[in-house]
Amino acid sequence: MDILERFKKYIAFDTMSDENSSTYPSAASELEFGKILEKDLHEIGVDNAYQDEWGLVYGRIENGSEKTIGLIAHMDTAPTIQGGCTNTKFVESYDGKDIVLSEKYTMKVADFPFLSDLKGEDLLCTDGEHLLGGDDKAGVAIIFAFAEYYLSHKDEFNYNLAICFTPDEEIGMGPAHFDVKKMNANIAYTVDGGPIDRANFENFNAAAAKLEIDGVGVHPGSAKNIMVNAVLLAIEFNNLLPQNAIPSKTENYEGFIHLEHFSGDVEHVELGYILRDHDAALLENQKKTLQKAAEFIQNKYPTSTVNLKIRDQYRNMHEYFLKDMTAIEVLNKAYINSHTPLQYEPIRGGTDGATITYMGLPCPNIGTGDYNMHGRYEFVSVTQMKKMVEIIKELFK
Ligand SMILES: [Zn+2]
């Protein structure tokens, strides 16, 4: 099946994951979609493909090679706008001008200046009312296109192919039930990025902090030297933190401490922070900064109770690749052989690949040609999706 035809078939299914669900996968539609992928893998000739008890779909094509490369894509779409787009707009050989999606929505070059770099490429856009779902069904379609080619050209390749489609990536649960043994690969790639000339093997180190302050609440009329207002203590606490190390003032490799939740009253306040830095030592410094600020407030207001809890979330996979660069070297070679420039960008967030890397399967992230993810202006460059299939062919040589 043609890659565009297959992509359109898959984005027609709405597989939005659900943050508030208590099941795994979080949405029944992901299980149903996984069954379709299993059936489609059988149809193209991946006879061993199966959906496991958690809804992950695995498949494998061997050609007698010693080593195996894994390709991973996620089946769910972001819980932002409803997916299931059937009314897509195909833009053949894009002219570099504004794209009218519907009466209500126009994608303007003024808002998205990178559009002018895509002149001449074939694009697929939404109708402005849906999420396209190219994140990550572009990855799914790319893997299928490569698998179909692999099956009829087995002797061209020096690696076996292992495939895995995961649920719930968008709600941070993608690798929760990923099984390195079932995958049985030497290296792997999540096919889940943006433009195909970028790849990632660095992400944030991450921790979360919860601060609780108990104050002393009494009648404001007779509060002198007695009342301790927890809200004011919380404000004072936050003012002790570096004021420029926040998301709205940082980029690239700059870390931040982000106050993402603040609630409470005179008696009790709760603050939720996330701590992020590419450098593990700097993340430790952030933790110390918070601890010092908590101690300062506690000492200054002895009748209050200040309780700070910090827990680690995920790690930068870069540390792993400092010891073993194989997955990066194989990728570099593929890009050189397909005459495509490649730039590595640090991810200012987490990635399933980082968790999978620390499970023992090194797993950088590669592009799909998807842009403006998670919103109504999402679109894919079909030209780039096709080019990515060619790059992956080089990857397996
Ligand atoms: Zn994604």
Q: State the domain count.
A: 2
Give the helices and strands as they follow along the chain. Answer: HHEEEEEEEHEHEEEHEEHEHHEHEEEH
CATH fold naming of the largest domain: Aminopeptidase
Structural class: alpha+beta
Bound molecules: zinc ion
* Global outline: globular
Low-pLDDT residue intervals, each spanning 5 or more residues: none
Instruction: Report the portion of residues in β strands.
Output: 15-25%
Explain what the structure shows.
It contains ten helices and 18 strands. The chain is an alpha+beta fold and 397 residues long. The chain folds into two domains: 3-202 and 317-395, Aminopeptidase (3-Layer(aba) Sandwich), CATH 3.40.630; 205-314, 2-Layer Sandwich (Alpha-Beta Plaits). It has an eight-stranded mixed sheet with strand order 1-2-8-3-9-16-10-15, covered by helices on one side. Strands 4-7-18-17 form a four-stranded antiparallel sheet. A hairpin with a 3-residue loop joins strand 12 and strand 13 (268-277). The longest helix is centred in the C-terminal third of the chain and has 21 residues, at 280-300. The protein binds zinc ion (ZN). Zinc ion binds at residues 74, 135-136, 169, 192.
Write the layout of secondary structure elements.
Blueprint: H1 3-11, H2 28-44, E1 50-51, E2 57-61, E3 67-74, E4 89-91, E5 99-100, E6 106-107, E7 123-125, H3 134-152, E8 159-166, H4 180-183, E9 187-191, E10 198-200, E11 205-214, H5 230-239, E12 256-264, E13 268-277, H6 280-300, E14 305-314, H7 318-323, H8 326-337, E15 343-344, H9 352-358, E16 365-366, E17 370-371, E18 379-381, H10 382-395
Parallel strand pairs: 3-8, 3-9, 9-16, 10-15
Antiparallel strand pairs: 1-2, 2-8, 4-7, 5-6, 7-18, 10-16, 11-13, 11-14, 12-13, 17-18
The protein binds zinc ion.
